[in-house]
Amino acid sequence: MEVAIAGAGITGLAAAISLRRSGYKVNLYERSSLNHEVGAAINVPPNVSRLLVRWGLDPVKSRFVKSRGLFFVSPITLEEQSSTIFDNHEELYGGNIYFAHRVDLHEALKKLATMKDGPGIPATIHVKSPVVSYDLEEPSMSLADGTLITADLVIAADGIHSIGVNSILGRSNPPEPAQQSNCCYRFLISKADLEADTETRFFTQGLPSLGLTIYPDIPGQRRFITYPCREYVHRLLCAPPPFQRIYYVNLIPTIPGPFFAYEVCNCAIICNKELDKNKTEDWQASVPKEEILEALAGYHPGIIAVAKKATEQGRWPLLYRPPISKWHKGNMALAGDAAHPMLPNLGQGGAQGIEDGLVLGLVLHGCTAKSEISERLALYEKIRRNRAASIQVLSNFGLDETSTTGLEEYMEGEKIPSTMEDILQLTYGGDMVEETTKAMRELQPSWNLPNAYFGEVADPVMG
């Protein structure tokens, strides 16, 4: 059977990987040309890093940086306020926390979806193909050039402004600016530039180089957030196997692993600003450097000096839409930001889209007729909606200001998180393979994962 996916971003590609491994022929229709880097950096938390590795993605070859911990630092004095060390995440959650450049993650997913080797039929990506309407009856979707795309299943994975939501709900449901923080500035800084200046060298030698570092100004409703991304591949590959890891251990004997070996520092400022709520997010739109310096007014001079090293800085509005009641209708479903747009406070937006993609492929495995698809999509919604909705609500707040307001509809009382540790357990500990297997075996007791779904990939993936 054939699947048409609107959007070839992280969610669309994850769905394509899962569906091709479940026996489907997948076509993705992407608005952009996919010929330039998009966005900045992204969290790859344990709840999906363990899945990506089992799919065949190599975090080292894809230049992911392994996180050492979560640190809160005073924006005024630069003194450490609190920390959580991630030295046992693989044992606790079956995977590590990584930081990646979005383009490195996207390229790795694209290769897994389209490579000739590996299980299933390679997916096909059609660029410069924006979707302008959907028809639930066929199902089908129409492109801007008038082309009608029909398939056995249609998935809208084309972001927060997807018109697929209108088709599923039968009404418009536009996102609105977030109430807590509605604006995010993002910029990347070369580690070499920071090291070359004595005023900013501290940023490459302390906590900012180890993991996710947050400089919260709670009264001012703003946060400066930073973490390393894009591992230093040159150093990594110069050391002959099997000594690559030893090479880094010798460099930094007290901290095992390549924690300092990165090329780029990702920086973000989350704050409140008057913005045009109807403006579509544009990761490529630049703003003057003076605007980010203004957003950091009052921060420690060292932070200001770091921000001055930015060469390209972008801004986009942080938009929110409360969890919706339906994710599917007939043989059409929503996934990723189209279903559950999330603020970046928990770093789970991309991860939840990957979980959507995984579950879509698994629940549709073994489906033998088009008439069975709607029932399987109902199961997809049952497995995913409450988990994604809970994380969506929790993402309205930072880890340092936990709020449980609005969670009662999606979680049982005793399971509602009350601490940062509870939230990490909820997000990192979710096992969508186990949950989906359990749900499918209730439907079909003989159900098993597709052959080679997590099998060895012949051509190791390099982003």
UniProtKB/TrEMBL annotation:
Transmembrane segments: none annotated. GO terms for molecular function: FAD binding; monooxygenase activity. Residues 309-390 form the FAD-binding domain. Pfam families: FAD_binding_3, NAD_binding_8. Keywords: FAD, Flavoprotein, Monooxygenase, Oxidoreductase. The keyword Oxidoreductase applies. Belongs to the paxM FAD-dependent monooxygenase family. This is FAD-binding domain-containing protein.
